[in-house]
Write a structure and sequence with these properties.
This protein is α+β, with helices and mostly antiparallel strands. The chain has eight helices and seven strands.
Length: 221
């Protein structure tokens, strides 16, 4: 029995599937591989209704990455340097940002940006960590210089430092969009163990927020 049949047998009608709500606002429109889209939607619906983990519970909108969807369903993987499966969302781990993978995440974001007609280029990254444990981290994105982080870090504030890295990453992406006068915005969506960044045009974002409001996820803009 496939996931669609299983969900139907449990009483989840097509109209109430969260993937269908996303479909209606055009969330999956950038996926060229129709079979991959079908499997992605099945996985999203399954996760949303899965109550097997007592600590997490059902009601979470998940964003299955392309590595997972391609491997589990034996589909061709994009292999483009990004985790995105639908060219909207991509995973971001704050600990990885903090530990020196800022550019790697920019590379992932670039795939999503370019698919949506946006430019994202960078150069001149500088990362200095001196003996007093102060981190100075800067980068130039689309010809604008940004200070990613410039503070002392210790055991007491490392969590806050990681959070500030997330905010810096989001703010840099959004400023680069604003400079191009494009009608898009990057938001942060929480999940139980990590966060994803989602790129949407402003009209789609309004409807996306309504969908998220019925889930356990939270949005930070």
């Amino acid at each position: 029995m496939g996931l669609i049949s299983l969900l139907s047998s449990l009483g989840f009608s097509q109209d109430h599937k969260i993937s269908e709500k996303l479909e209606k606002i055009g969330y999956f429109d950038l996926i060229d591989d129709n079979l991959k889209k079908i499997k992605l939607k099945e996985k999203i619906d399954f996760d949303y209704n899965d109550n097997s983990n007592q600590y997490i519970g059902k009601g979470w909108l998940t964003f299955p990455n392309d590595y997972y969807i391609s491997d589990v369903y034996n589909l061709k993987e994009y292999k483009n340097g990004s985790s995105t499966s639908e060219f909207r969302a991509f995973e971001v781990w704050s600990s990885s940002l903090f530990r020196g993978q800022f550019v790697e995440y920019l590379e992932s974001a670039k795939i999503v940006f370019e698919k949506n007609g946006l430019r994202l280029d960078w150069k001149d990254e500088t990362f200095d960590e001196n003996s007093t444990e102060k981190i100075y981290h800067r980068i130039t994105v689309n010809e604008t210089e940004y200070i990613i982080f410039s503070e002392q870090v210790n055991r007491e504030n490392i969590g806050q430092a990681m959070y500030e890295y997330l905010n810096s990453f989001k703010n840099i992406l959004n400023k680069s969009i604003q400079q191009q006068n494009k009608d898009y915005k990057v938001i942060l969506v929480t999940l139980p163990e990590y966060v994803v960044f989602v790129l949407l045009n402003n009209n789609m974002l309004v409807d996306f927020k309504k969908i998220i409001s019925k889930t356990k996820n939270k949005i930070e803009e």
